[in-house]
Amino acid sequence: MTTQPSSRSGFFFAFSAYLIWGLMPLFWKLTGHIDPIEVTAHRAFWSLPVAGAVLWAIGRTADILPTLKSPRKMGVLFLCSCLISANWGVFIWAITVERTLETALAYYINPLLTVLLGFVFLGDRFSRLQLIAILIAAAAVLMLTIVGGQFPLLSLFLAATFGIYGLLRKTVEVGPTQGFLVEILLIFPFTLAYIIWIQITGSGEFLKGEINWLLLVLAGPATAVPLILYAFGAKRLRLSTIGLMQFMVPTMLFLISIFIFGEPLERVQLYAFVMIWIALVLYAWSILTAERKQKSHPLEKRMA
């Protein structure tokens, strides 16, 4: 059983992580004059010392050794690092070209896509409410395509890369922070080579002004810190709580895109968002219903 103080600290950690993630568009907007690929490379590069320092501080660096010795795990984590890097790069690009609203749609869709991926690849079963939620989300995408005249490729790409990333990570027995460190280690040679190359050719922005190098260095902690906070929070909270809190991020993206960045919200987009919100209400209700059933049948709970 989770103690009350542990639940409070878990809520603080998870809330802090989601708050940082939700505010990140404001930071990435400041990097709009820098190539998103360069920002992504520095994001990975400067995440490594942060993740390494945290693991060293809590005395868990040895936890990554079994993973480093497993070719299968390393291969899966390399695919994970490629997926998350692509997700990072496209997300940053979307913010800088004023398409933040589409990123909000992506992360509203993501939980429903995750349920679908679990059903297809892991044999998970979804409830009737979750099936209805998935069908409503699919109808919203279809409406955007037919009525809006534009297939929401950006939103689906972000949702799919993050969803498949999460699916692959479920197949590797490694902690979230430890796994993140290994992922960064695997792409570190490529990011380092790219950063050196663009600096030598003169196309890099790292040494062109104090603001540039500061923004690029801060991209690392901005990436690693919320992930580590989330890892600590997830251990102390129920899955249903985490599942509901994740809607903080796309909601903040939605509000920032409209009220701060001033991006236009077309009528068809509003209808699509309303449909997605209805789907998410059903999804959230399915989570709460499942938890009530677990409480009424405690012997059926799986040990954590």
H/I helix tally: 12
Average of per-residue pLDDT values: 88
The general outline is: globular
Q: In percent terms, what proportion of residues is strand? A: under 5%
Report the span from N to C terminus.
10 Å
- Helical content stands at over 70%
Biggest sheet descriptor? none
Output the structural class.
mainly alpha
Number of strands: 0
What do you see in this structure?
This protein has 304 residues and is mostly helical. The protein is 79% helix and 0% strand. The protein has helices at residues 4-30, 36-57, 65-68, 71-96, 100-121, 128-146, 153-169, 176-201, 210-236, 239-245, 248-259, 267-296. It is globular. The N and C termini lie close together (10 Å).
List keywords for this structure.
304 residues; mainly alpha; disordered C terminus
Architecture blueprint of SSEs:
Blueprint: H1 4-30, H2 36-57, H3 65-68, H4 71-96, H5 100-121, H6 128-146, H7 153-169, H8 176-201, H9 210-236, H10 239-245, H11 248-259, H12 267-296
